[in-house]
Specification:
Low-confidence stretches: none
Helix content: 25-40%
Structural class: alpha+beta
Oligomer: single chain
Order of helices and strands: EHEEHHEHEEHEHEHHHHEHEEHEHH
Length: about 425
Amino acid sequence: MKNIIFHIDVNSAFLSWEAVYRLAHKGGKQDLREIPSAVGGDMAMRHGIILAKSGPAKKYGIKTGETILEAKRKCPNLVLVPPNYGLYEKCSTAFMNILREYSDIVEQYSIDEAFVDMTASCHLFGEPVEVAEQIKNHIREKLGFTVNIGVSCNKLLAKMASDFRKPDMVHTLYPEEIQEKMWPLPVSDLFFVGRATTKKLFDMGIKTIGELATADPAWLRSILKKHGEVIWGFANGIDVSPVLEKPPANKGYGNSTTTPYDVTDMETADKVFLALAETVGNRIREEGVKIEVVSVGIKYSDLSYVSHQKVLQTSTDITWEIYQAACSLFLELWNHKPIRHLGIHTSRIKNDDFFRQTSFFDEIDYEKMEKMDKTVDALRKRFGMDSVMRAAFIKQPIDHMSGGISREKRTVDYDRVTID
């Protein structure tokens, strides 16, 4: 093969990592992977969905993304464990470090999966399938959890192969194997084909990947636009994207949060936006960039969603400026119905080499605000995120650094958790 690409995917990552941690460090006797179990959010905080499930739980029809109530109806004895993103990040780092022992070109695709370009290094360890087995066994023996590895000549086929029978397996999907191994699969299994596209393809009479691959690409493009051409290429195993050791630059930064109770007043919404602006602004400054567009999103209690955006007069990384823009947009957008979810998103990224044009009429000392933000960032990085807090959040139920991975998901107090 011209290229040798692996896709490595951790089996039921969050649940596996929790299971291994309990067995190895908390005196656990029961392996969560061997019983109907799942990682689920906090229903009291309205994050009550299934984040990961075990193989036995899957047999009950439990699905990732469904509510805990739905899962419990299917399996009343389902064992639920809280999410622990601090643990997941450590496990992910250890996982990626092992992959880098085999190649210096590793693209972390998500917290629990990666592409590895083995083209230049595979010969040092053996034949492709043999090396994949080595990596799989190395991870299981050293870290205690299992992975699936797909082997092929490009990223798409390697990813498709890793999704074949699980767990703890190595599969190949070479171009000459596409018709036998991939074409009989339902079209919904193809990368980049979501629910909406699946429905459109079904309406067109296309139900398998093979039927998509042999369809007229011009016909597909006429109905599905550019997306039709892309998925036709995927169905035929065409993918020229390289494995990227460094991720591409962000096209935007954002954060959102589901509030623990419905927001029905402007004052509360303002505090949520200020908390979101804190985390978004921090990320923008960490990357050394500025943004020119701010947008807000509102999800109402009936789950309907609206959004609105504005272009700023000048690019910025100042928390207060992002917050003010968000509040202005919110006033234009809100219809006074109860809100369960708010978000701030930014785009049109600029390098942080822009000098703001000052004016005699400016009421705000922007240079002073920039210095203040950077000082606060440094203090929080050194002493913790709670070391500096705006007075508006003192004795308030709203977290002063909202969005992203919520506080209750970052750690678990195992003294309050029953471990069998």
